[in-house]
Amino acid sequence: MRIIPVALLSVFLASCDNPSVEESPITQGLLTACPDFSETGKPPIVQNAQCGVLHVKENPQDANSREIGLNVLRLPAINPTPQPDPLFIIAGGPGQSAVEIAEHIFYTFNEVRKNRDIVFIDQRGTGKSNPLECAEFDEVHYQLSLLEQQQRLKTIVQACAEKLGEQLQFYTTPYAVQDLDTVRQVLGYQRINVWGVSYGTRVALEYMRRYPEATRSSILDGVAPVNIALPWHGGEDALASLRLLSEQCSAMDACAEKFGDVLRNAESIAQRLAEQPVEVTVAHPRTQAPFTLSMNHQIFASMIRMALYTRDLSVLLPLAISNAQDDNYDLLASLIVMAGEQTELMGISYGMHFTVLCNEDYPQYQSRTEASVDFLSANLATAFADVCEIWPRYPLDENYFTPIESDIPTLMLSGRRDPVTPPRWAEQVGQHLSQARHLIAPGGHHSITHDGCVAQLIAQFIQRASAETLETGCVENIQPLTPYFAVGQAVETDTDAEDTSGELTP
Fold it and tell me: Is the pLDDT of residue 502 over 80?
């Protein structure tokens, strides 16, 4: 779940007609050839890519409601006589643009695209689908003290909520699901396959519940059901991920000797920073310009948690934490800068982000009997509650919060080291899905579709609309990466060799 830590606020149709899809008159006018290099400065991501905007009512129950545009991108199948059921891609966030991430993930589904269209839709409130944005959220002032950051956050949240107004009530998940099916119908598809990541799995699950006859199969990567109540469990899930990294290091003599107990050291640093933040100045990792920030325990915890999202950044944590133990925060500060730039590239629309989480997740806080666990002296739920006490909230149908029962073929994917949607959430969801299979990558973090053989397994699953006969042993080859002693130097070990070639058993 690509959530920014609160403390850091953290078409022209193809020349070959598709005989399997009955194009409606609306479709023929909706999708045209995507703008070329002369208009955008870059070429379409694939040949014959099709773009368009579908206008829908902001309030589907009111014929007089204003219209908003849904931004749609379709990558036509390579086969001139493709299968009739495409793959719809649902982005995470909440608040991420599916069309914007298409450029970075479309190749992952190349095998699927040989015989099926791939469709990306900017969920309402994101991307170019009437994005709910407030520019102030993109301005992170790292130099401010923790108290000043908290005060600034409340101010910009209040101003953003007032700016966006009553339209916010129409941007929760149920409205997005209805839009998804409207696009399906307009594009002439009888059934679709859906792939969702993180928050996108919540959208996919709700689509399965509301439109089972239109759902052929579902792939859920990093399962985030509504009962996860983000970020109530964020502390314990992040702590479990960091503990696995610490245990890995302790089991390796060279790592344990150099870095000690990674988890204990991180907790010690967080306590120290909670008592006395430090000012850190480093060279910007890209521009080399001096960069200064106030390193407090909230920023420290947020950075560790963000690094745990990915395999590549997590291997730097033992070194970064060890350096910080010696009052050297340069590597951590550089990671914070890089994470911030990656966050900007994700294109999160924070108005939609807070509307979903404050209306779907935050209301569940009051019914929790267990406490929300701190992560490195920071409580994610407490910080987020400050935002949601300000953000407008609207009632949802009580049925929305009940488990989703389905017999639709479903492939669930989890990374054992995921700090936000670990396997336990997929296991809960799977209890109510009679045709589901759950694959866990031992060395996977948040989202494993790109890792090892997983993309190939997804293609096979979609082809068969069944996970029963999949040969999934290759997922075990996705083992944890070994920590770095220094940047570019990994710990040598005979027991941690990794094979992520992803070759499938014939």
Answer: no
Do residues 67 and 186 share a domain?
yes
Is 303 inside a domain boundary?
Answer: yes
φ, ψ (nearest 5 deg) of residue 503: -70, 135
Token pair of 65 as six digits: 């409601």
Tokens of 351: 């108005």
Strand-pairing partners, residue 159, are none
- Domain total of the chain: 2
**82 Cβ partners below 8 Å, 6+ apart?**
18, 20, 76, 115, 116, 117
Mean pLDDT of the chain: 87
Cα dihedral 390→391→392→395 (10° resolution) = -110
Task: Say what the pTM is.
Answer: 0.89
Domain annotation covers residue 496: no
DSSP-derived letter for residue 36 is -
| DSSP per-residue letters across 319-348 | HHHHHHHTT--HHHHHHHHHHHHHHHHHT-
Question: Is 39 among the domain residues?
Answer: yes
Instruction: Please tell me whether residues 323 and 258 are part of one structural domain.
Output: yes
Answer yes or no: is 160 within a domain.
yes
Whether 319 and 269 map to the same domain: the answer is yes
**Selection from 202, 197, 237, 99 nearest residue 447 by Cα:** 197
